[in-house]
Amino acid sequence: MKRIGLFGGTFNPIHFGHFLTLQDVKAEFSLDSVFFIPCAIPPHKPLTMIAAAKDRLEMTRLTLAGYSGFEVSEIELARAGPSYTIETVLHFKNTLPKQTKLYLIMGIDAFMEIDSWKAFKNLFRVIPMIVMTRAGQVSESTDLQLRKIENFLKNKVAKGYCFSTSKLHFTHNQMQPVFIAKVKHVNISSTNIRTLIKSHGSVCNFVPAEVESFIKNRGLYL
Ligand code: ATP
Best mutation site among 190, 196, 211, 220 for ligand 1, i.e. most ligand atoms within 8 A of its Cβ? Predict the structure, then answer.
């Protein structure tokens, strides 16, 4: 039985915060592969400073090239209109072998906005989630982030979630489990990178060299 992670994002641009944390998740949850899924039109982000989908796709490819167990999916770019995660998840569920174990992976910031996503309660019914805690401007302890997730689940998704310390996860009798990943905190965001590029700063510590060159050659984010 294959274990597969689905990791969607704008990847505008992709950075080490995405890749290093996903390496941790892949190891911790013994995933056979992880699909990075760049979205076409992000429904939840302002459309300023968004690189073309084909450029974001290419930067994602450049980052993952040569790493086995990491793949890029064009599924959301091939679909017309905004990218809705529920449709992506159902696509993978319907096309992969029935016994495949799928996980939807996201950072806590994305998770805390999930109640604005299309059919979000359905997502909790159909696929187990893995939420990565994330370093922020104001660093919050993992305990505090856990409490936020617990309150969110109970107030916005469904009453009755229980916390289990055995594998750090929340369970519910009608919903799929929500796991918390103990990833290393990499305090990088695409927003920081775009700001740095605009002010002609170096981003060599935040993205692979191939991505840095690609951004320069295409004149992105200036
Ligand atoms: P932006 O700054 O433009 O909002 P971002 O850096 O958050 O972008 P996205 O492409 O929007 O990047 O993120 C895709 C997914 O990766 C989201 O689930 C987000 O929470 C997660 N993520 C991004 N950066 C990190 C990080 N440094 N650590 C953990 N998770 C991250």
Answer: 190
